[in-house]
């Protein structure tokens, strides 16, 4: 979905996710789908933000439901942020707590930064979904439950001895008991589907109900369903009918006396054309844009791994842009093919997650030795080993920095939001192509699967990444003979020439054994090895990266320093504290190797430096070692992103300490 925004940029304070006060109006409303629904006068309450969580069994289609609600919300013009959360198993045991899948969406009429700390509305498709999520739901929130699933056996599976719908345990919430399964089957009688087939559409009934409840557009979802099931028109129309039935149920039932409006975020975005985008999709588009701006074919050598596989899936669709994708038999083959493509003159890319980085480490070291441009995309997840494949973590920073034998420095770039993955991909490609080096891009599962609005850039806004291949001799010997030296460097960047195989006169050796400076011949000379090691390090140290920007409106004594996906929660927490009168500064790093040149000077200005990370203190370790600053770590490794309230509390304690 895309939407046009023609308003000036604005900013609102994400100070209180629970603040839902809004204007109330009474208005007659007519369903757009059914003449029989009639006209009823219901209260419509205007809100500035809402957090909704869809939760159910991993086979209930919660990710699809959340994605469709998000797409319609994006087309409506709200700012939004999402948090999909699902099991690692393809089909986890039905009705169990480990099998619960959820999708949280935070949307607002102003600038927001996170998927929200706690849902204002929980849609629970079964007892397991209710039990797994009720701890996050604040008192007074709305809970919509599928009563058809609250029978003895499903409740016993998750430890309910009595029905929570009847024993008073939910009296602190506004509970809406809805027989979703029964209503869906009844709505689809005319289609002649089996009970099992009809039940599968109950997520669309729930989507229709929530679409009515929050006045979401509906045409896009109906078009999506007809396109998705184009080869099965009966199934397509059944899903559309279930969706409409959910809308009509909200319109006609007395249980939902109030619906809600959240106006478009007209003051939030700079003028432009926007679409909702996930981090992995933005990264894919960024890689394609980089290859076009460099006028190089894009080659992806990859092995499927959660949560990076979506990049392989997406790039395989774009052969028309000169993209070539290779699904290798393993991680080592994937990066080997990508490095070979880089040697052959392509923009070589390999995608993986933490376990795959471990397998690719030797070839990354080879790329350092060969000094060829190569992008290593690491979509971090919970570890160690297989760990938590579908959960998020930031624990690969030290692996990216040091996880190779010998002195093998590699630049590291980290996006901060899903949309920023596009720009980070361009930045990583710039560094790789300019300095002839492999580059790490560290995203994570939170960014990869989460989404937000993204302004589609104009082509003339993109950087020029074109490079010049070596075309002839570049060195003159003492006797006047002109030769090609593959390791004769550019004096500014220390990059060696990029010689495409097959170019006459540019034949040269490649391999992992140490090379002689200039000639590239095999060399075991100690002095030469010392020189080459130091030169490769100097090349990385000399990479031009922007200075880190500091948000400090009040000469605060405390700085909170972050990197990667902690940007949203940190910024939301900082806004909360400032709204309470606290003085705190914020800085966020995209470039982790090399660090921005002004970082040391920035750190020295503050009495306290706090570094929140979804690991056990990896950036803090690097900061302490390089700048001798007593950086304080605040860490979380539970597979989920920070909550703004949680961070605000921790930062306030650091300020007061």
Can you offer a commentary on this structure?
By secondary structure, the protein is α/β, with parallel strands linked by helices. The protein contains 20 helices and 26 strands. Strand 12, helix 10 and strand 13 form a beta-alpha-beta unit. About 5% of the residues have low confidence.
Give the structural class.
Answer: alpha/beta
Helix content: 25-40%
The helix tally amounts to 20
Name the poorly predicted regions.
Answer: 4-13, 15-39
Strand order of the largest sheet: 13-12-14-15-17-16-24
- Compute the average pLDDT: 93
Oligomer: single chain
Based on Cα principal axes, name the global outline.
Answer: globular
Gap from first CA to last CA:
47 Å
Question: Rg, please?
Answer: 27 Å
List keywords for this structure.
657 residues; alpha/beta; seven-stranded mixed sheet; 20 helices; 26 strands
Write the layout of secondary structure elements.
Layout lengths: L1 E4 L18 E7 L8 E9 L1 E9 L4 H15 L2 E7 L14 E9 L12 E4 L2 H7 L8 E5 L5 H6 L16 E5 L1 H8 L7 H5 L2 H12 L5 H10 L4 H20 L5 E5 L9 E7 H16 L3 E5 L6 H7 L7 E5 L3 H13 L3 E6 L1 H17 L3 E7 L16 H6 L9 E2 L6 H16 L2 E7 H5 L1 E5 L19 E2 L5 E2 L42 H16 L8 E2 L6 E6 L3 H13 L5 E5 L1 E3 L5 H6 L3 E6 L4 H10 L4 E4 L8 H13 L1
Parallel strand pairs: 3-10, 4-7, 7-8, 8-9, 12-13, 12-14, 14-15, 15-17, 16-17, 22-23, 22-25, 25-26
Antiparallel strand pairs: 1-11, 2-3, 4-6, 5-6, 11-18, 16-24, 19-20, 21-23
């Amino acid at each position: 979905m895309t939407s046009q925004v023609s308003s000036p940029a604005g900013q609102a304070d994400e100070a209180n996710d629970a603040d839902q006060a809004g204007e109330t109006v009474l208005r007659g409303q007519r369903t757009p789908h059914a003449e029989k629904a009639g006209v009823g006068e219901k209260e419509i309450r205007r809100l500035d933000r809402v957090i909704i969580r869809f939760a159910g069994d991993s086979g209930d289609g919660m990710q699809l439901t959340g994605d469709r609600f998000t797409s319609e919300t994006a087309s409506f013009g709200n700012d939004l942020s999402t948090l999909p959360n699902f099991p690692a198993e393809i089909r986890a045991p039905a009705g169990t707590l480990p099998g619960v899948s959820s999708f949280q969406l935070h949307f607002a009429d102003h600038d927001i930064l996170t998927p929200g700390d706690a849902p204002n509305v929980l849609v629970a498709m079964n007892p397991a979904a209710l039990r797994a999520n009720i701890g996050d739901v604040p008192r007074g929130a709305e809970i919509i439950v599928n009563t058809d699933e609250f029978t003895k056996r499903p409740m016993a599976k998750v430890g309910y001895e009595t029905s929570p719908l009847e024993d008073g345990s939910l009296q602190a919430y506004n509970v809406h008991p809805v027989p979703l399964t029964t209503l869906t089957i009844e709505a689809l009688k005319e289609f002649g589907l089996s009970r099992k087939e009809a039940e599968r559409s109950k997520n669309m009934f729930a989507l229709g109900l929530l679409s009515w409840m929050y006045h979401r557009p509906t045409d896009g979802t109906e078009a999506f369903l007809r396109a998705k099931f184009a080869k099965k028109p009966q199934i397509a129309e059944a899903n559309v009918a279930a969706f409409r039935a959910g809308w009509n149920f909200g319109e006609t039932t007395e249980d939902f006396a109030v619906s809600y409006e959240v106006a478009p975020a007209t003051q939030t975005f700079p003028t432009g054309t926007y679409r909702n985008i996930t981090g992995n999709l933005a990264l894919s588009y960024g890689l394609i844009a980089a290859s076009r701006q460099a006028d190089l074919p894009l080659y992806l050598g990859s092995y499927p791994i959660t949560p990076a596989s979506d990049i392989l899936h997406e790039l395989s669709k774009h052969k028309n842009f000169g993209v070539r994708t290779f699904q290798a038999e393993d991680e080592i083959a994937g990066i080997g093919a990508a490095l070979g493509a880089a040697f052959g003159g392509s923009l070589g890319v390999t995608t993986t997650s933490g376990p795959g980085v471990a397998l690719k480490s030797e070839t990354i070291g080879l790329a350092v030795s060969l000094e060829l441009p190569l992008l290593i995309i690491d979509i971090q997840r919970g570890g160690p080993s297989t760990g938590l494949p579908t959960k998020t973590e930031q624990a690969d920073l030290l692996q990216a920095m040091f996880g190779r034998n010998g002195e093998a420095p590699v630049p590291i770039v980290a996006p901060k939001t899903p949309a920023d993955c596009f720009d980070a991909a361009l930045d990583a490609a710039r560094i790789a192509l300019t300095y002839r080096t492999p580059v790490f891009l560290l995203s994570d599962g939170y960014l990869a699967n989460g989404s937000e609005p993204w302004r589609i850039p104009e082509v003339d806004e993109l950087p020029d990444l074109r490079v010049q291949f070596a075309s002839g001799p570049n060195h003159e010997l003492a006797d006047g003979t002109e030769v090609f030296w593959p390791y004769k460097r550019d004096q500014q960047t220390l990059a060696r020439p990029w010689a495409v195989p097959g170019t006459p006169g540019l034949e040269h050796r490649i391999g992992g054994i140490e090379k002689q400076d200039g000639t590239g011949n095999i060399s075991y000379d100690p002095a030469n090895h010392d020189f080459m090691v130091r030169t490769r390090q100097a090349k990385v140290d000399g990479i031009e990266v922007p200075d880190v920007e500091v948000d400090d409106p009040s000469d605060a004594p405390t700085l909170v320093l972050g990197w990667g996906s902690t940007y949203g929660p940190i910024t939301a927490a900082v806004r909360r504290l400032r709204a309470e009168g606290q003085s705190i500064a914020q800085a966020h790093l995209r470039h982790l190797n090399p660090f921005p040149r002004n970082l040391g000077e920035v750190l020295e200005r503050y009495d306290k430096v706090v570094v929140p990370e979804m690991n056990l203190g990896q950036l803090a370790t690097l900061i302490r070692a390089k700048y001798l600053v007593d950086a304080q770590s605040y860490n979380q490794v539970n597979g989920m992103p920070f909550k703004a309230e949680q961070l605000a509390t921790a930062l306030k304690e650091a300020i007061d300490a």
